[in-house]
Amino acid sequence: MKLHAAGTLIVITSLSVILLTTVCYILLLNNLWWVNLIFFALMFIIGGMIVRFFRVPYRITNVVEDGVISPADGTVLSIGPAFEYEFFQDERIKISIFMSINNVHVNSYPISGVVECSAYHPGKYALAKLPKSSVDNEHNTIVVAKDEDHKILFRQIAGFVARRIISYPEVGDHVEQGEEVGMIKFGSRVDVFLPLDAQVFVNVGDKVVSKKTVLAYF
Q1: Which residues form the catalytic set?
Q2: Does residue 198 form part of some domain?
C-alpha cells in the first residue's frame, strides 16, 4: 500500500491544516471532555479519509489474453447497448462502473495494446449515476487497440464530488493490461465500450476490482 503521487500535496496540506486547527483548539478552548473527544475524533476521521482517498494497494494484474479486465474499483451500474458517438460512432456494449468515495480511485488499462485516442473534455459535475453524466460531465476518453479487430474505449468521468481527472495516456503509447492510466480524484465513474459480440461476464450490481475482475471476453 502506498499513496498516489497526485495526492501528496493535498494530503500534506490537509494534515497540516488539521494539525494547526487541533493545536489552536487545545490552546484557545477548554471544553467539556466529551466535546473534546468529539472534536479529536472528527479531526482523526477527516484526516484518515483524505489519506484513504489516495491509497494505491499493491496488486498483481490478472492478465487475461482475450479478456477485458475492469479499469476501476466499484459497482457495475448498468450494462447494455449504447451508441458511442465520439470515436467508433456505432453501437457498442456499454458497462458503467460507479466509483464511490470508499473505492480505490486509481484506474488501469483493461487490455494491452496501442493508445489510439486520448481526449479530455471539460464539462459539468452532475451526479455520476445519472446517464447524462457520460456526455455532460468532465471526462477523458481513451481508446486502446489490441489489433484492428479488438479495440476498447473507456471513459473516465468526473462526478459531483470529483473535481479533477488525472490521465497519463498519449496517442501512440504501447500499454499493458493492468498498467496505471491515472485516477479520478475522490471517485466517480468509468464507462467501458465493448464490441457487440463481446461476451460479458458481469452483472448489474456486481462489485468489480481494477486489475482483477474480468468484465468480458472478445
Answers
A1: 188
A2: yes
Burial class (CB in 10 A: 0-12, 13-18, 19+), 30: exposed
C-alpha distance from residue 75 to each of 4, 181, 182, 208 (Å) = 22, 19, 19, 6
Q: Is residue 62 part of a domain?
A: no
What is the per-residue pLDDT for 126? 58
Residue 115: predicted pLDDT: 97
Residues 213 and 159 in one domain: yes
Do 41 and 139 lie in one domain? The reply is no
In a domain, 92, yes or no: yes
pTM: 0.85
